[in-house]
Structure to design on (1094 residues):
């Protein structure tokens, strides 16, 4: 028997209408490529989004068309999110840190009709334009006065697209399973694969995040999304934070520590979201200034595992750390690091231990661990297996990619994350490693993440990666590739001594290779693929000695 | 183009599984009909819910069957909610305050198969049993030791239904539009009408409430649902609070001021939810004791308009008031009273004014005001019109009632609330009155709610109702029917003088009729229908004078 309730589609435009209606004093503050700071209230943004939607339609945009963006975090990018999805087109955000080859691949694969870009990225497009679709329309995200003088290709001006358009629109209604967004994985192996989000998945993800964030997500608080709008929807913040009525502080292109510190300080940012590499820069600036930015009380760390030392550094300055985990294929958030209420009574060290894990699942995201034969493993904190996920916010396949789609789900319909993990009885997830980054030594697994976290807590190491190198006897042995924190580099023995309390002897790295910097992926994670390429020809010390 | 995301049905069992998984230290504390206090953790409740689900199946319960409850707020009632809906049956909560005639009507209309009842309600069922379906199974919600000795009808024992059943179950999956709950309106006119909630509407309502409640709804806080589980799902608390990980303190049958005070004080209740009549009792006890219950910081008032004086009384003791509004037909919450962040800077009087309104719409609930011709009115705070609502949590018709279903929605598919309201530009809703309770005097409308609130702020009045009585010249004129607060009743002139600052002279009541108590509906609101019956033969003073 069916219930007798209205069926209203869950649409992205409903979040927009609600946010503006309920939170009229909400603001979007943006560092602009023009060099200044721009401010608009939610209602001002709404009127511009309506104008933009009309402008898109004037360009012939229809339901299902892919519209690409190549832009920093700023109000125009935010406006594009809602205008594009609102009229039923698909917002395809492109990561400017992709290689030219990948960029060409995804724009052609997505069959984008229009590409919106910040002035910053004009050279990137100029370099590859001949290999992009010939009928593409380009729009520079600025006003007429700031249009680059020597534009190497024809392009429209964003502000002119809006000019004279009506400030209200009847947002169309359509099936809630209609696609609204497209984001390609950074593609460490093979071509990037597209996650095609639906209105339903996006609205449910936004609600789920607003439920989970609780006290760190109160109406009127100010959120800094350092995590880019150009990748996995800035962890859903454009939706969840609008729903909750937070004000946005958009950092634009300035993501170094001093710039972030200044912006947070001046704009009274309460909660800041980003990957660990970004926070290393901010923490260095905080150390240099001897204080934290004014009003800073909460940080959400995801994208890759937050080192324990980073969590401690923030907690020591009364900044609550929420450690989250997810994937492009998960919209992207899967687990969140809000602490359970009873943890307040635990010893501080135990609390930090809990925060170093990846948190508990969000409502609507199911987790399962399986062994190599696909058998379910218990959530007992001890069993370690491959992590599979399921939920309305998880992909069922990849856009226009039958081969990858066929391999995405297991026989029960769960998505394989490629992560190896354990889950505590109280629900806390620990990502042990990417399955492909685990180091197999003498038939036993060593987590590269655990090694990195332990090494990073040594003051002489600024950043590092642990990888397995071939060894004739042990199959693989761990080594560290590290960036030194200062002039005096610690010795391998010093590092091993420092790590010894947390590891068995055979788990400790056999070598340390000093580098000036670590190669990063397009999403700001250490690229172990490139690291292995850079280390081409490297030999384990024992092999060298015997050579 | 469709997104490529998993489609998982939004099911009530998902809330249960999530709550237990994520909030294992959550508790359900209940005042029992057995006379003691019972405690269970979420995981303990979960195991019993699984046993109950097996027990229901052992009784032959299938998808779509209606299973009735007649019970106070307590853990067994809570268990029934999840066990019944979880296996795809429909939880039909019955209000024990309904008349025997209404009770007989709805049980037969719903075609209930099993009726679960607290020992308290055995006499109610004994009196009407011959008019209930002959093949009905009755289950007394207690253990064998507490089964009434002289039970006047055959009945099973709740605890025996669970005994020996497995403590885990594979919750079935089905379409999210499947019905999960049934609640009849209290039916002030005609037969009660059934709102048939779906899993989708219930899950979205639960998420929506958890998003809206923000800071008053933090994991680990303790919530007291005085609002009954036997009516409109206790405003959705069994779902939203489990999702957020609050602990429940269930008051059982003891709803008087001293009992509530004691329970809140001993159980450290932070947020308490109920109708204004309940809070009158609590406030009297707080006054008598000269302090508020320990830990009490938040109260949600709905069901009927909270008098301004009540809001002030709570706020004066640092209890945050959230004034909410909704209807059985809305699952039931439509607007919520969480204050916008910027209101903190407003003068206290202005803040109280805001709290005296019904709050802002919840995400997913659309509001429109229309005039008598069905034209839309602006949300400018001035225009007053009939309020229509739309959303996934709003009924599209009534269970097995084609006549009422045909009249439920307007041509645009919106549900007519029967309330007359205005909406401020900032989104705040003010319910002016029930359309049928508005008093029409000389072609102008007077809000009975406004008159009541003004009169209630006089210390000599404990409770009151304003109604319109027939008048040959003015059509209707307002009078007050009031319960005195003490021995010395104020005069009509004193009341009029007290109200004068807020009203034009012609809007003031022409008479005051003192009564010992006001008639209440089954949901605890003043029954103006019954009041008018009680006043049968009453004449306006001018008519008496000329008689």
């Amino acid at each position: 028997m069916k219930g007798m309730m209205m069926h209203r589609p869950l649409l992205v435009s409903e979040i927009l209408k609600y946010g503006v209606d309920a939170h009229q004093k909400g603001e979007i503050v943006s560092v602009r490529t023009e060099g200044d700071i721009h401010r608009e209230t939610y209602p001002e943004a709404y009127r511009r989004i309506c104008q933009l939607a009309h402008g898109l339609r004037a360009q012939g945009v229809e339901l299902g068309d892919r519209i690409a963006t190549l832009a920093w975090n700023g109000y125009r990018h935010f406006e594009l999110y809602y205008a594009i999805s609102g009229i039923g087109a698909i917002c395809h955000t492109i990561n400017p840190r992709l290689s030219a080859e990948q960029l060409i691949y995804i724009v052609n694969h997505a069959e984008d009709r229009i590409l919106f870009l910040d002035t910053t990225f004009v050279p990137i497009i100029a370099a590859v334009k001949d290999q992009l679709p010939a009928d593409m329309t380009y729009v520079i995200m600025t006003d007429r006065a700031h249009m680059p003088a020597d534009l190497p290709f024809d392009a429209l001006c964003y502000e002119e697209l809006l000019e004279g358009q009506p400030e209200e629109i009847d947002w169309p209604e359509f099936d809630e399973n209609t696609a609204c967004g497209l984001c390609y994985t950074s593609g460490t192996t093979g071509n990037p694969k597209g996650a095609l989000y639906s209105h339903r998945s996006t609205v449910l993800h936004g609600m789920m995040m607003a439920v989970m964030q609780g006290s760190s997500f109160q109406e009127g608080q100010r959120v800094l999304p350092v995590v880019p709008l150009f990748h996995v929807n800035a962890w859903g913040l454009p939706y969840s934070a609008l729903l909750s009525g937070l004000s946005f502080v958009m950092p634009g292109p300035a993501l170094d520590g001093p710039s972030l510190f200044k912006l947070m300080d001046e704009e009274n940012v309460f909660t800041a979201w980003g990957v660990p590499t970004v926070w290393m820069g901010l923490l260095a600036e905080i150390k240099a200034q001897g204080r934290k930015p004014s009003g800073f009380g909460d940080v959400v760390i995801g994208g890759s595992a937050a080192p324990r030392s980073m969590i401690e550094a923030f907690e020591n300055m009364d900044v609550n750390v929420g450690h989250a985990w997810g994937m492009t294929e998960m919209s992207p958030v899967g687990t969140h690091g809000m602490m359970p209420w009873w943890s307040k009574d635990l010893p501080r060290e135990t609390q930090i231990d809990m925060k170093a894990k990846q948190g508990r699942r969000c409502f609507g995201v199911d987790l399962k661990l399986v062994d190599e034969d696909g058998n379910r493993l218990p959530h007992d904190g001890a069993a370690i297996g491959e992590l599979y996920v399921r939920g309305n916010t998880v992909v069922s396949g990849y856009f226009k990619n039958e081969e990858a789609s066929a391999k995405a789900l297991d026989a029960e319909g769960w998505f394989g994350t490629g992560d190896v993990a354990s889950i505590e009885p109280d629900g806390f997830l620990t990502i042990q490693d990417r399955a492909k980054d685990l180091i197999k030594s003498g038939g036993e697994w060593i987590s590269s993440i655990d090694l990195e976290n332990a090494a990073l807590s040594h003051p002489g190491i600024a950043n590092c990666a642990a990888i397995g190198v071939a060894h004739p006897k042990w199959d693989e042995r761990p080594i560290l590739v590290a960036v030194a924190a200062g002039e005096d580099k610690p010795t391998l023995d010093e590092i091993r001594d420092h790590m010894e309390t947390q590891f068995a002897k055979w788990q400790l790295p056999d070598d340390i290779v000093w580098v000036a910097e670590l190669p990063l992926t397009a999403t700001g994670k250490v690229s172990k693929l490139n690291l292995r390429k850079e280390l081409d020809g490297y030999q384990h010390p024992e092999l060298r000695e015997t050579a």
